[in-house]
Design a protein that fits this description.
Layout lengths: L2 H8 L6 H33 L2 H4 L9 H7 L1 H12 L4 H18 L3 H19 L6 H41 L1 H17 L4 H7 L4 H21 L1 H13 L7 H6 L5 H17 L19 H11 L3 H5 L9 H28 L12
Helix pairs in contact: 2-4, 2-5, 2-10, 2-15, 5-6, 5-7, 6-7, 6-8, 7-8, 7-10, 8-9, 8-11, 9-11, 9-14, 11-12, 11-14, 11-17, 14-17
Amino acid sequence: MSKFSAFLKRKDIEISLKRYGIDALSAMAQGLFCSLLIGTILNTLGSQFHIGFLTMPIYEGGPTIGGAAMAMVGPAMAVAIGYALHAPGMVLFSLVPVGYATNAIGGAGGPLAVLVTAVIAAEFGKAVSKETKVDILVTPLVTILVGIGLAMLVAAPIGKAASWVGQIIMWATLQRPFIMGILVSVIVGIALTLPISSAAICAALSLTGLAGGAAVAGCCANMVGFAVMSFKENRWGGLISQGIGTSMLQMGNIVRNPKIWIPAIVTSAITGPISTCLFKMEMNGAAINSGMGTCGLCGPIGVWTGWVTPSEAAIANGAVAIQPGAMDWIGLLLISIVLPAIICWLLGQLCRKIGWIKDGDLKLD
């Protein structure tokens, strides 16, 4: 083993798709969830239900509780990424200003920019950590200078590129709602079940509007679909853990028998265009909601918050607050829960009948 390889191993620096594309990306989504998403939910609850302590500033002229959480989205993402990369304390704490600066510079594509800069800053910080007698100075200096220096170079272009891709997807969905409804729903639904973060992808692309609604449909199709389809094997515990937790729990079973995924994928291909063409359901809340599905009911909550208080990204794309009518609520309920449960269960029964799915194939360990 070369000296450089030995050094990387000693520093726990693993240059791999799993470490950066799965571990770091998934952690970034958790950082988004604990700041931007929770803050959005708190603000919406406060304004819609007139909850005093949620609508008042935490100090004179300052933000609300939800606003404070939302303002910390950059640092929360960066620290979450550093945690996933096993960064030591000094590196982890130094990622706070890196995340703040990167997200501010990256604009609508801030999450993707934070992923890039936080990963590189964390790895450089880990490399120098405890290598000198003045570690308390060297480690934070290297982490912050590398991270913010890189952000000044690449965050704005990354943000613009991510925003452009998201804009293209949303534009295409408006132009071809049937085809794009299928594509967005199926692709994001698959990403939700794979060990990657569909929430982080949607956030990075700032995916809202009609495309965001299709993404919600695809995610719900997988989560509710697997929960209902596997009820025979997993009963109520499985229904809850998959229905409001994650369909990723089925990944091991999918590897053993990929055919068990067919009902959920076909369901997403059905509910996606129903969302875009029939109900014209838009998800104008925080973009991360587009990739959350029924996890903590964040997908439906995102649609609701988008109706009453659209996110900045959605407003930039022309969204306005609306007073939802009966059809809006019916569409949300059907797309999020009822149709995935019925369609995926029926398709699952068909697959069982023809032998593609056997008893025990959907059993969670």
